[in-house]
Amino acid sequence: MLDYKDVSFSFNDRRRRRRRRRLLLLLLLALAGSAFFGFHCLKAGSAVSAIEDLLLAGKLDEAGRRLRHPPSPLLQRGNFRELQALNDLCRGRLPEAASRFEQLRRDGGSTSLRSGRFLSLFFSRGEYDKLDAYAGYLLPRGGDEPRWFHALCRAAFLDPEGAEKAVAGLSPRYRAANAKALDLLARFNRSLRAGRVDFVFDRNDAPLAYYDLKLRSSRPLVPGFDFSPFAAQFNKGARRFRLTLDAGLQRSIDRLFHGLFGTLVLLELPENAIVAAYSRPRAGKPADAAFSQAYEPGSIVKLVSLLAWLRRDAGPPVRSDRDVGTRRAPPAVGAGRGGLFPLQCPGHLAVGGKIIYELEKHGTVRDHSQALARSCNVAFALMGRAAGHDALAGLLKRFFFNGPAFSDRFLSFATGNFDVQAGDESQLARLASGLGGVTMTTVHGAVLAAAFAQNGQHFSPFLIDDAKNILNLGFYRHESEPRRLLADDLNFLNVRKAMAAVVEDEKGTGARLRGLAPRLAIKTGTAGNPVGGLDAVLVGFLPADEPRYAFAFRLEGAGRSDVHGAAFLRRLIQVLYPQ
Fold it and tell me: Which of 99, 214, 465, 550 is 20 to 30 Å from 194 by CA-CA measure?
């Protein structure tokens, strides 16, 4: 039997318990909602941070993929929109980025990105156009950082008054913390007000050119070099360039060219740093002729022809009485299949119904080394025929003929060309002998010599060693990347020995340089015609045994390479090795 005398019961208690249960349920739902919302906020915040890191690291493709499918809580919407604008900016799409920034500015609201890191990134890279776009977007929000980078942009865009006005708005605390940078900026503004800024320097930090603010162009301090590409970059935002050139050597080469026209390029091995690049073309030719003007190289192409012949597949001998152009030509005495040497050079050769002539009758040509040393057209016509058009054309392409220009940041160094279409035997013979059908630039010739000097290892030629922004902070430094053109050291060694024989053979085309120290490895070429004036073209490297320099030069209308080219090279060696 139950006793209820001590138990109280009320409908009010029941209602209270129900209210408590509802409140507890609502509280649990609120906590679950907050956790869900907080999780997605953290996820979105993490996504924002990850995309920022990708953009700052230059991983633009991955950042773009993530921006196409972002988490979208309302609290992060502005950040994602700003990141999309920054992605455009980092990719160099300035109009798209500016449009996005303008829309964000009109819509109002705030974002919480690490904007200072992007401002610093653009400045450290010397990307003033990007820096100006982002700093201009942030400037209305106030703060020292956007104002400081805006001041740097004004100075970089050659506006000292605008820079000083922006600096005046900085807080005393920020000015004190950045006193050294402010002093550098003030020094740069003073140079702007003086109307002259030294902005291109040689490898020893001697000035090569200054920028004239009144004329808005560069003024050279050394002869024979065109600084207009650097001035064009300076117009986009002030910066300082250090080149691989040697100012003293450039002036010495100018003295060598007294009374002469032509071009010269000197490379420092192994990385093909351009130590000298001199252009003194005839009227109407480009100011950067050493890098852009193509011309017939004459017998220089025989270097590639010789390598093609040395690499040929073994096959039957390729010579006959008709090929050699005389009824009394001796038989081939080469060892093994495909023997060609020794051969008799009568001074001309009939090929495909046409005659290939020599400057002189060479008589007996003992071997391929003597053929190169004496630049025998008859021998090379036969060697080209033995190698075949495809092999010769393939090697010419491998040595950058018909290839894209070498590039160095915003600079371009043109290469040569040849007619890739297979012609008749006469055309092949002329191509292999360097008697037509091929062109070369001076920088290309120096690169060709460098490749033989280093047994087929190649570095792209470069001129810009480093670049700095207006506070002298480096944003670029050249890094060389070697490439092997051919894994064929033995045949390269044979060509190198033949190039040394050009000087050391008593009847070599470089015999006038015999006994000169250091030992040379060269190839001479004579192009043009006596009526218009013969051009002396010469490429090579030195010292022959342990190469330090590779070079090429062309003397327009100066005469034969074995005479006038050799005399010029002698004077150049005396400049490089004065003792």
Answer: 465
Distance CA(119)–CA(144), nearest Å, equals: 12
Answer whether residue 24 shows pLDDT above 50.
yes
CATH number at residue 568: 3.40.710.10
Give DSSP secondary structure letters for 322-355. HHHT-TTPPPP--SSTT---SEEE-SEEEETTEE
3-state SS, residue 210 = strand
Average pLDDT, integer, range 554-572: 96
Q: Indicate whether 524 and 442 sit together in one domain.
A: yes
Domain that holds residue 420: 255-576
CA distances to 265, 298, 510, 523, 529 from 374, rounded to whole Å, are 25, 14, 9, 10, 20
Q: Tell me how many helices (H) and strands (E) the chain has.
A: 22, 19
- The answer to whether 449 touches 478, Cβ cutoff 8 Å, is no
Domain count, the chain: 2
Q: Which of 559, 508, 513, 515 is closest to 537 using CA atoms? A: 559
Is residue 4 included in any domain, yes or no?
no
- Give the Å distances, CA to CA, from 211 to 194, 201, 233, 477, 564: 11, 12, 11, 22, 38
Residue 203 in domain: no
CA distances from 548 to 97, 276, 466, 551 (A): 48, 14, 22, 10
412 beta partners: 407
Does 281 sit behind a cis peptide bond, omega within 30 degrees of 0 on the bond before it?
no
Single pTM value for the model: 0.85
Instruction: Read off φ and ψ for residue 384, nearest 5 degrees.
Output: -65, -40
User: Are 150 and 266 contained in the same domain?
Assistant: no
Query: For residue range 178-199, what is the model confidence (pLDDT) as tens digits?
Result: 999 999 999 999 999 999 999 9
- Domain identity same for 150 and 276: no
The secondary structure of the chain in percent helix, strand, coil, rounded to multiples of 5, reads 50, 15, 35
